[in-house]
Amino acid sequence: MGAQVIDVVIIGAGPAGLQAAVHAVRKKASVLVLGKAKRSAIYRAHVENYLCVDGVTEGSEMLKVGREQVVRFGAEIAEEDALEIQKKADFFLVRTETGKDVTARTLILATGTTRSKLNVKGEKKLLGLGVSYCVDCDANFFRNVPVAVVGNESSAVDGALTLLGYASEVFLIAKKISVSEELGRKLADSKIKLMEGTWVKEIIGDSELKGLLLEDDSTLIVEGVFIELGAKNAIELATTIDVQLDTETFSYIATDKKQKTNIPGIYAAGDVAGPPHQMAKAVGEGCVAGWKAANFARIMKKKM
Ligand SMILES: Cc1cc2nc3c(=O)[nH]c(=O)nc-3n(C[C@H](O)[C@H](O)[C@H](O)COP(=O)(O)OP(=O)(O)OC[C@H]3O[C@@H](n4cnc5c(N)ncnc54)[C@H](O)[C@@H]3O)c2cc1C
Fold it and tell me: I want to staple 172 with a disulfide (CB 3.0 to 4.6 A). Which of 60, 160, 161, 232 is the partner?
């Protein structure tokens, strides 16, 4: 990952992202894939409905072969999360969890489906009444009040750091923090109140959030809780640059048949672009997105 401009940066290293990388790199684009194999939905699957693959194949094995193929063709893969996307003139800037800024001509969002839930009492009832899944969308509603973030990984730590600029106190509830050294350092140097080794048992409140019941049966008084499990999903990443969602469920990135979003130069593929959530669809859309993004990057280069 150098300081140069990369033609196609793919956020997501599942079937959609890897297939996009294959097609973009074969079109001679420079390609960087960001994402973790173990975080792909297919990693733990036993797959037997994928065409031309006989019997049952482990998803983890398919990803391993896919990654080797992508690297052999000349793309780079970085096992790290994207934390932020910005638009800068004709380029996109992607900030990663190790603090790197990657400059891209085009972006492919292939981050899989939306964020996991905590699945605890009160979570559903208090959604929008103190429970949020998106710091970048909702931080402003929690000015000068105490809030908690729940999660172990990059989105939780980055979210908690963002909330320091809004909330009066920020608690980070984690079983075990697992982030890059860079993000770990930022956490240690910050005013975030880390509560490691515990978890949320219940979200308390009727018409508004009153607090959290923790595993040790203690109560933490907060007015908001941000559930930030795993990496930032595409919808969170996309909020800062106004990528449109589908108008029916507002749960997926809206694309056309060329996998184009409403922002020129940004494509989306796979589960993040809607159902059916199947590898065959992810791979098909990845192919189109990789192809189109490489073409777009080439046109942009010629213009300069
Ligand atoms: C238990 C289970 C069994 C399944 N079985 C089958 C099956 O038999 N057949 C079938 O066709 N499908 C199956 N599926 C569905 C299939 O796994 C998905 O449709 C497919 O993995 C979607 O691919 P994707 O690339 O869109 O997303 P994913 O495979 O989920 O990959 C998402 C990628 O995005 C990365 N990412 C997310 N956020 C960020 C970020 N902020 N920065 C960087 N990277 C990020 C993740 O690390 C991951 O690498 C199964 C799913 C599950 C959960």
Answer: 160
Last residue of a domain, one of 206, 227, 248: 227
Is the CB of 40 inside a 6 Å radius of any atom of ligand 1? yes
**Separation CA 181–CA 73 (nearest Å):** 30
User: What is this structure's pTM?
Assistant: 0.89
192-230 in b/e form (b: 16+ CB < 10 A) is bebbeebbbbebbbeeebbbbbbeeeeebebbbbbbbbb
* Residue 153, pLDDT above cutoff 60: yes
The residue whose CB lies within 8 Å of the most ligand 1 atoms, and thus the one to mutate among 98, 111, 155, 253, is 111
Domain around 170: 131-227
Specify the CATH number for the domain of residue 97: 3.50.50.60
pLDDT in tens, 188-241: 999 999 999 999 999 999 999 999 999 999 999 999 999 999 888 888 888 788
% of the chain beyond a pLDDT of 90: 83
Pairing of strands 76-78, 101-109: unpaired
Claim to verify: residue 84 and residue 13 sit in the same structural domain: yes
What are the structure tokens assigned to 249, written together? 């469920």
pLDDT of residue 1: 53
